[in-house]
Write a structure and sequence with these properties.
about 190 residues; alpha+beta; Nucleoside Triphosphate Pyrophosphohydrolase; eight-stranded mixed beta sheet; three-stranded antiparallel beta sheet
Length: about 190
């Protein structure tokens, strides 16, 4: 399955796109094989409630590009380690998706990585309230990716929502999953 997915992704080391005055950020979509259940799962974080941007939302580990990062892929792996303790030695990057702009004025580059199943979490409570996994087949099932329309502060927004158990995955994270699903559906994995 991983080789088929990899064939549908952009190369990790491809030059990153830049757009307007948006700031650059990167996230990691961590895929891990659950050996007990014999299925692939996606690791998600729930952001801490006290954060200024997107408090309490479901997200992928990631954050803003810093000058010491040699590439946005390094941003994604560095932030994953800082937020949930999974080191670069436990991550095999297999590709990336095109950058997408967020309402919080970021150009986010999503990277896809396979996590060694023997990983250990070390959660930074200042950034992350919770870490959980969801079945890969569930979050990439088109029937679970609902497009909704909502008025917020007088503005009409259209966005995707994926409801998994009591977790409401929406916004940039859901959009990344939808874009990822469209790409991998080009092949039979």
């Amino acid at each position: 399955m991983i080789n088929s997915i990899k064939s549908q992704l952009l190369p990790v080391d491809h030059p990153s796109e830049t757009k307007d005055a948006f700031k650059c950020a990167a996230v990691l979509m961590p895929l891990v094989k659950n050996e007990v259940m014999n299925r692939w799962e996606v690791i998600f974080t729930k952001r801490a409630e006290h954060l200024k941007h997107h408090p309490g939302q479901i997200s992928f580990p990631g954050g803003g590009y810093e000058l010491q990062d040699s590439h946005l892929s390094e941003t994604a792996t560095r932030e994953t380690f800082e937020e949930i303790g999974i080191g670069q030695d436990k991550i095999q990057l297999i590709g990336r998706l095109p950058q997408q702009q967020t309402v919080s004025q970021y150009n986010v580059t999503p990277f896809v990585g396979v996590i060694n199943p023997n990983y250990q979490l070390k959660i930074d409570q200042n950034e992350v309230a919770e870490v959980f996994t969801a079945p890969f087949d569930f979050v990439t099932d088109l029937t679970n990716q609902k497009r909704v329309s909502e008025t917020i502060n007088g503005h009409q927004y259209n966005f995707y929502v994926i409801q998994y158990k009591h977790y409401n995955i929406w916004g940039a994270t859901a959009k990344i999953l939808v874009n990822f699903t469209r790409r991998i559906n080009r092949s039979d994995y």
